[in-house]
Amino acid sequence: AHDPGLLPSVFVGGIAPNTTKSRFLEFWFDSLGELKAYFETFGRVKEVKIIKEKKTNVAKGYGFVVFKDEKTYDRVKDVVHVLNGRTLDLNVGCKKSADPEMVIGR
Predict the structure, then answer these.
(1) 3-class SS at 62?
(2) What does the alpha-carbon distance between residue 25 and residue 59 come to, in Å, rounded to a whole number?
(3) Is residue 8 left, alpha or beta, with left meaning phi > 0 and alpha meaning psi from -120 to 50?
(4) How many angstroms separate the CA atoms of 42 and 71, rounded?
(5) Element (H, E) at 39
(6) Of 19, 48, 67, 96, which has the most beta carbons under 10 Å away?
(7) How far apart are CA 83 and CA 60, in angstroms?
(8) pLDDT of residue 35
(9) What's the confidence (pLDDT) of residue 87?
(10) CA distances for 55 relative to 21, 25, 64, angstroms
(11) What 3-state DSSP class applies to 91?
């Protein structure tokens, strides 16, 4: 049974990293928007986050997508995902608490 306090989410690896610091902001917004738009083709997306280095602000090539409902998660979890010619590595064993600071393994 689905716990309404937990939102289905996935870890996404294989996101194309930016190549130079000067292109960081352009990459960041393009990748974030592209990643969200891609996963919205499967259904409702609540949040997309791309992880970056704290010191350099350079994207690390992975992030998280949180879905608004279980139906979208079910459509995403068993598909091979390719974005911009790169195969994305999904770990679908995550649930995100309604509390934004807490991610729970499944």
Answers:
(1) strand
(2) 10
(3) beta
(4) 9
(5) helix 24-40
(6) 67
(7) 16
(8) 85
(9) 87
(10) 12, 15, 20
(11) strand
